[in-house]
Amino acid sequence: MAKKLQITGLKIPLPKHKDLDADLQKYFSVCEEKLGFVPNVLQAYSFDQAKLRTFIGLYNELMLAPSSLSKLEREMIAVVVSSANRCYYCLSAHGAAVRSMSKDPELGEMLILNWRTARLSNRQHALLQFAHKLTLTPADVDETDRAALRKAGLKEKEIWDAASIVGFFNFTNRVATATDMQPNPEYRTQAR
User: Which of 131, 169, 185 is nearest to 55 (CA)?
Assistant: First the structure.
């Protein structure tokens, strides 16, 4: 029978891991092995296995697949978008990832509180400026913004990838906020 794990403000019965399809059981086992826990976002989506697979596929493609945007740059974008949206779940999870990848706890906190205070390369500054503007005032993004990214050394594919990551995190921030999704407590202490 389904268990009621209260990880969101919605009281949706979630299946036990052993009741998931074999591919998702394996994915959750890999999470346990690599992270020590299954992220609550994955557990929340498990009530609809098709949506969970879609979420995993897009996340893995944008955040983990080969790209000339570094994994740290991608996580930094996630944090800046989540900060602009005040998404508690994603700030906790991706702030921890920035702290871990950068080996700089201060960077993770600066990106959460005010990314402009962080010591950034010109490339990183341009990426985060673009992410912030595309999140808050998307209708105002124009060729000037793309030109600034090119001037900072970003190629067309990197601009596409950055825009896709911004779009994805605006989506996930809204779902997490709408459902009052709670971050795993492990994120709070990682890489501090």
Answer: 169
Q: Which two tokens stand for residue 110?
A: 């600066």
Residue 35 clears pLDDT 90, i.e. is over it: yes
* pLDDT at position 178: 96
Query: Could you give phi then psi for residue 19, rounded to 5 degrees?
Result: -95, -5
What would you measure as the largest C-alpha separation in the chain, in angstroms? 56
44-102 pLDDT per residue, tens: 999 999 999 999 999 999 999 999 999 999 999 999 999 999 999 999 999 999 999 99
Go through the domains of the chain in sequence order and give each one's CATH number.
Answer: 21-58 (1.20.5.810), 71-189 (1.20.1290.10)
Residues 70, 82: Cα–Cα separation, whole Å: 18
Residue with tokens 């906790």: 92
Q: What is the pTM of this model?
A: 0.94
- DSSP category for residue 37: S
Distances (CA, A) of 162 to 24, 81, 116, 145, 187: 28, 11, 18, 12, 24
DSSP assigned state of 117: G
Q: Closest Cα partner for 82 from 41, 121, 140, 131? A: 131
